[in-house]
Amino acid sequence: MTGSATGSQASLREANRRRVLKALRAAGSLTQAELARETGLSPATVSNIVRDLAEAGILDVTPTARSGRRAQAVSLSRGVGVAVGIDFGHRHLRVAVGDLAHEVIAERMLTLPPDHRADQGLTEAASLVDELLTDTGLTKAAVRGVGLGLPAPIDTGTGAVGSTSILPGWVGVPAATVMSDRVGMQVHVDNDANLGALAEVVWGAARGCSEAAYLKVATGIGAGLIIGGRLHRGVTGTAGEVGHTTIDEHGRVCRCGNRGCLETFVGAPHLLELLHTSHGPDLTLRQVIDLARSGDAGCRRVVADAGRHLGVAAANLCNLLNPERIVVGGELAQAGDLLLSRSGTSCRVSRFPPRPPCCGSVQGY
Ligand SMILES: [Zn+2]
Question: Has this prediction a pTM greater than 0.70?
Fold first, then answer.
């Protein structure tokens, strides 16, 4: 055999290994038959690659069952590394450590004051990361990446957090740089709706879609847009601010200075204000959803009206982008059919729960 023939065989083998690893990164765990289907490689080739990578400690092979038949589940070994996710909300911080087979190993959440400053939030997050790694017996050397999601626009040029009333103490902060210094690891920061869109396309209700939108509906309203299979950020990273599309040009003044934005109809502060007289001043969005589910007429009305306004925004997105699917997530999406469907029959729960536990999908619009 010539040297070049040996070289091309080695590069083919390496390319096949990369295909197997890429499929497992995306899917978490697959049987060898599923791996063959996903990669287009022959079962014999997959079997050889899995055996070699398992012997090298890169893959784990465990017994499982598919359609009642015994099979071998293949996943990336925890020894290859773990990933850390940090999620900031208006009043919460959640940190999770997951392995590359998409299993969350440990997770912790705490409540933050709504007007907390960035340095306070980042300090809390860094402490939680350290605690979780210690609790799970992992070192920072095992962490392959740290991702941080914020409910705010992130300037793609400067990396700074843009204007937001949801996280007022964060504006102008280069969150990735500051957090990287705090935890001693490289941290990637993005808008949480963008990250939601990526998660839904890779693992969730929009899996396999090259044109999709993810609507995050909570304190604020944001969208992550997938166009041509890629996240669309716009010139400065603020694409997808659908919360500030106009629903009523004579409506209430929004925090952005315009009138009648979607957020003034669907954002949590507005929904709670609507129920202030009838249900008192201390109601939370979580309680509104629980009450609506248990039949409270006022909460059901508020959630259904929010769904109608959200439908207008979704219709506008459809006209603009012609997406294959729109996925609704965020805390209000936990209302499920009460939000998404008047008849209660045309929506389904995303397969993405339990983290975040909050997605439904709108299909066949
Ligand atoms: Zn606005």
Answer: yes
